[in-house]
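U., I forgot to send this yesterday:
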Amino acid sequence: MSRRAFTLLELILVLAILGILASVVAARLNGLRGTQGVEIAARQVAEQAQRSRHLAMQLAEPVRLRLDLAAPSAEVRVLRSGGTAEPGDGGGALTALRSGSESLDASFARDDRVAVSKAIDIMFWPDGRADPAGTWSIATQGRSATVRIPGGPQPVMVAIDHEASHAP
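Result:
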C-alpha cells in the first residue's frame, strides 16, 4: 500500500524547522541593518567634512560644519562678514545622520583630548585647515564607526567596525 499524505508529526517537524530558520535569518538581517546605518552615518559625516573643506578653499571664506551629537545631524554654513549663508553648491545645509528607525549614539573627541557631548563647530579655513581636528564616533547595536577629521588638508578618514560587541 502506497502512502499519499504526510503524518501530523512530519508536518509539525517541518514547520518547527522552518520557524527556526526564519528566526536565524531575521536576526542576521537585523544585525546587517545596524551595520549599514552606522556606515551610512559615518560616510555622511565624512562627505560633509570634505564638502566643507572644499567650499572653504573654493570660496576663500571660512565654512562652519556643526555636528549636533544629540540629533545627530550635520549643518554646513559659509561664514561671511554679514553673517552666515547657505553653501550655494546645490546641496542642502542640514543633513540628518540616521538611517531607518535605529538610533545612533555619537560623540566627538578633539585632538587635545577634550570630549564634546552636545554639539561641535568645526571651522574649515581657505587654506584647508580644520579647527578643531578630532574623531567623531558613531555606534548602534554593538557596531561602531569613526570619522577622523585631520587639522591639515589631509583627507577625512572613515573606519567601520563590523564586529558585534560581546559586552554583557
